[in-house]
Protein: DUF3048 domain-containing protein
Organism: Cytobacillus horneckiae
Amino acid sequence: MLKKWMAVSAITLLLVSGCSKNETDEDVLEKNDGTGVADQSEDNKAADRYPFTGIGSDKEVMGRSVAVMVNNHPAARPQSGLGQADIVFELLAEGEVTRFLAIYQSEQPEIVGPVRSARDYYIELAKAYDSLFIAHGNSPEAKKMLDQGYIDNLNGLYYDGTLFERVNYRQAPHNSYITFDHIKEGAIEQGYDLDQPPASMTFMSEEEAEKIDGEQANELSIAYSTKNPAFNVSYEYDESTRQYKRASNDEWTVDYDSGAPVLLSNILIIEAPHETLDADGRRDIDLTSGGKGYLIQRGRMSEVNWTNKEGRILPVVDGKEQGLVSGKTWINVIPADPGLESSVVIN
C-alpha cells in the first residue's frame, strides 16, 4: 500500500477563481472558469472546450499554454502546482534523475516549482504545444536554442530574485519558484503573445470512453532505474473518481501547499532510444522515430504505438490516432533499452 504524504502548507495555494467581464490583455493567462474546468457530464452543452483536457467550458477558451520545467529530485518533493497541469511529461534529464515538463492551459496555480534547468528535448516538446517556456538554467544544447530565440522563454538565470524567487524552506538548487503573476509580468515585458490558445488534442466522447477495453490496469509501476528507486513511479486507479493517483518511490505525488493528490485520466508510457552524452550523464532522447507504448485509461491498458506529429507525442493503433479521455494526462518516456516489457509492471 502506498504511503500518503503528510504535507504541511508553507505557501497558500490560490487557484485562479474566475475572470472579469472587463478583462484586459494582461488577464489572458487567467481566463478560466474558477476551477478551470466545467462538469464533464455537461460537456455536450459546453460552448467551448479546453484544448489539452477536452473538458467543456461555458465561456470562450482563450490563453496561451505555459510549459514549466519542474524539479523531481527527492529534495524537491512534494512540488507545487503539478496538479493543475493539463499535461506532464516525465523524462530522464541526467543519469537516473527524471524531470517534469508541466504544461498549463486550463488552470494556472498561483505558484509552480521548484523550477529546474532546461534540456533540448523538453524545449522541443514545449514548442510543439505552442507554449511559453519557463526554466531556471540550461544544458549547453538548450542554451543554444534559447539564445537563438527558438522558443519564447523566461529563464531564471536572468531573473533570479525578481521573477523567480528562492524559498527559505529548501536548499538550492531545489528552491527556485515562479508565480503565474510573474510569468505574466515577464511575458508582457518581453512582448510575448499570451492570448492565442493552442491547437486541440484529440478526445473521445463519454460514450466512447465507456467502451474502453483492454488488459486490466488498476495498479502499475515504472522502473526508471534498477539501482535507484527514488525515481521509480507507480499509479493506482480509483474506480470512484475514474482517475489515477501517482506516486514516486511509494510516496503519493501531492501538492506541497494544499496536500491534494495529483489525479490523472490518461497515462501514456512510451519507450524511446536514449543516449548518454557526457560525464554529467546528460541525455539525448529520440522523440521523433516512434515506437511502442502503453495507453492506460479507465482502469484498462491498451498496447499502442506512438508517433511524433508536428512535435507532439501521440498514441496510434494501425496508423489511427487514439483519443484521450477528458481530463489530465501524464506521459512517461522510458529508455528503449531495457524497454516497456522490462520496466513496466501492470496489475
Notes: The chain has six helices and 25 strands. Residues 1-28, 30-45 have pLDDT under 50 and may be disordered. The first strand starts at residue 48 and ends at 49.
